[in-house]
């Protein structure tokens, strides 16, 4: 048994190096969640309005995304986007793009599939009377949706959304498969020169665990803040 | 002036409104009575375009529209002439009391914010909630919520305020204060159409009472004519049924 | 660069032939997750002293850690330490004799237990406290109350979520490619290197996983329905 297998010294040495790549994961979570919220809302509206054809397409999209591994989504976007752009523009305009863009897209498209159903339920949970009241004070349908329905739906969505964001964080650890230097990518780089990776993985594990605890606390605070005067957190009146 | 002509509405085979005509003069307070299912709420919601009527015309002031052919533009224009007080308040849950009142003024009517806030403050003061500007609906009692709902309607200074059973979701002890508030506003000369079950309130406040049953108007006239000396048997039956539980002194 | 349908078909056929491996790993992981998940959930729900804190920690840690990290570290430890542990236990097997599938199952079990226990706990907590009290007042013991009153009610909440967990775990098994197990994912990629047909290969793999998910969903719905009937039937 190799006695030099694990050392605390290396654990400490690598920690700041690994931690310096943590923002990459956070970046992926933030950008892809923003993308997913937009696309998810569009999908949800298509489903609520039952817009013909699009309604069925959205259903297939959601089923596909939920039924297939995220690793596949990463590679489908990575290899598929250039093919698509080639077909549309005649040449691959994505050839010089930062790998992160593919990562954002893949995670965003994935998350949207999961969020769409949550968003749909959240929008439907806002009583019809809220829309009627908006229309009756002279707002247009869109204004009522934007200013009255969406904010209330968001509050309903928040617990599910924050749970999803917390679970997204470890899921981003696949970004390195496309060549993005995130924490996992950094561990690989370190292990090339030092032949040691276990300490790096331990560092990453510590960071992921700490981050998820912090994120969970933050979302609890946010949920409390967005309560519009209600005392309970669970949305009951 | 509001003129509603020959309004029809059915859900499937179920006829809810079967040719109703109503005429409301400026400053008039029209109270609509009737058992549940008589079509009175549907009437109110149809002229607000919250329900789409199958047939009928609506005139408010100079402008006339066929209810089943109204374009989006028409609907928005007509809604700006009316305001609605809902049975279950329907205050915007994500807005404070003050914001509930300013929302329609600022966004719907493009009023400058300062002016809207000024109007909203006056409206809230009028309903006795000057000290509740920053409360969210969930922090207000049912009666207070309904008063904000009334302030929201009054602040829009519409040509007519439509009240849909404004007290039927309230606790009994809160009904009185809400009714007297509506009476106070009525005395300022605002045109109103009120759907309610409160007979003595109707007698007090109405310039005209309409009794509906089965989707048609059975009887209409002054409060004395309809409530004290009803001509129609159906009206008498209704009044008898609704007045029975309490002793009724006019 | 064009998509070649015949290469999708090749990759698809290859992927399909490895469905048993993917399903085997999924099934074992689900069973392990259920068994230990029940224990972890019970410890946490009924606040067993000392153990409940350990269980809390376990769930927090394995929900927060990337599954691929757990897999890679497990594989690393396996390669470097298996021989010494085996010889310590006087076993004659060596690293070479043990399939990587077992490493995959071992690694996937941790997040599976953590996830599963969360859902079990959620369904346990969905049953009102009053149900226990009602059981006690008619003279049932805790175990009797649990088996006859609580369990049937929690199953109504748990079974619908179980479908989702099984699909999630099935999808997660695709990560065993990182430690060299040949499953659906790896099978689909078999010829990708040869023809540079990665997109076709991943598309084929996606179709197979999608099909498996739809089958699991269908089975879950059928189970749900039969439970629902049980609920609706007063006899």
Outline the structure in words:
The complex is a heterotrimer of chains A (237), B (250) and C (235). Helix content of chain A is 76%, strand content 0%. Chain A is mainly α. Chain A has a domain at 23-182: MetI-like fold (Orthogonal Bundle), CATH 1.10.3720.10. Chain B has a domain at 1-81 and 194-250: P-loop containing nucleotide triphosphate hydrolases (Rossmann fold). Helices cover 38% and strands 24% of the residues of chain B. Chain C has two domains: 1-18 and 184-235, no CATH class; 25-181, MetI-like (MetI-like fold, Orthogonal Bundle). Chain C is 79% helix and 0% strand. Chain C has ten helices and no strands. Classes of the chains: A mainly alpha (237), B alpha/beta (250), C mainly alpha (235). Chain A binds chain C through residues 1-2, 5, 63-64, 66-72, 75-76, 79-80, 82-83, 86, 166-167, 169-174, 184, 197-198, 201, 204-205, 208-209, 211-213, and chain C through 1-3, 60-61, 63-69, 72-73, 76-77, 80-81, 84, 167, 171-172, 174-175, 177, 185, 198-199, 202-203, 205-206, 209-210, 212-214, 217.
| CATH C-level label of the largest domain in chain C | Mainly Alpha
CATH homologous group name of the largest domain in chain C: MetI-like
Roughly how many Å apart are the termini of chain A? 62 Å
Major beta-sheet overview of chain C: none
The rounded Rg of chain C comes to 22 Å
- Quickly give the structural class of chain A: mainly alpha
CATH topology of the domain at 23-182 in chain A: MetI-like fold
Q: Indicate the CATH class of the domain at 23-182 in chain A.
A: Mainly Alpha
What count of structural domains of chain C? 2
Order of helices and strands of chain A: HHHHHHHHH
Shape of chain C: flat
DSSP helical segment count of chain A: 9
Main β-sheet description of chain A: none
Termini distance of chain C?
64 Å
CATH superfamily of the domain at 23-182 in chain A: MetI-like
Stretches of chain A where pLDDT is under 50 for at least 5 consecutive residues are 232-237
Helix/strand structural class of chain C: mainly alpha
CATH fold assignment of the largest domain in chain C:
MetI-like fold
